[in-house]
Amino acid sequence: MNLRSRSKVSAEFSMSSMTDLVFLLLIFFMLTSTLVTSSALDVILPKSKAQSVNKASITVTINKDLQVSVNEDVVAMEQVETQLLTLASKDPEVVVILRADESVPTGETVRIMDIAYRNRLKLVLATDPK
After folding, report:
1. Are strands 68-70 and 95-100 parallel, antiparallel or unpaired?
2. How far apart are CA 70 and CA 60, in angstroms?
3. CB 125 within 8 A of CB 46
4. pTM of the model
5. Fold of 57-125
């Protein structure tokens, strides 16, 4: 009397379905990663040729001593946002021109850019045309 089972379990594993899933996931992530936008600030940089802004503008200047002025009025960094909002309330299409000295740390210019970004103001970073 032979009690052994004649069907043996195969130890082989088919990888074809697993590789199909991996390739589908790879394609999915490649396509969706190109659609993701970074959370960087939108800054309109002027061309190297001397162009001027024809719209109404607010000038924010930061000198090498980190003093901030808004349209020739020196203000503290904490008051820049309120000053910009009061001036921008008069004209919704106003453009903020940021004039920063080349020795100003990037963090200080980004603070002004962040204020403009949060309040949906158009900002132009002024550069030397030379």
Report:
1. unpaired
2. 5
3. yes
4. 0.57
5. Nucleotidyltransferase; domain 5 (3.30.420)
Task: Report the C-alpha gap between 108 and 113 in whole angstroms.
Answer: 9
**Mean of all residue pLDDT scores within the chain:** 77
Instruction: Give CA–CA dist 57/16, Å, rounded.
Output: 63
Q: Where are the domains of the chain?
A: 57-125
Mind listing the pLDDT tens digit for each residue in 86-96? Answer: 888 888 788 88
Residue with tokens 């550069």: 127
Report residue 119 as tokens.
């309040």
Q: Above 60 in pLDDT, residue 44?
A: no
- H/E element, 75: strand 73-75
Number of alpha helices (DSSP H) and beta strands (DSSP E) in the chain: 3, 5
The model's confidence at residue 26, banded by pLDDT at 50, 70 and 90, is very high
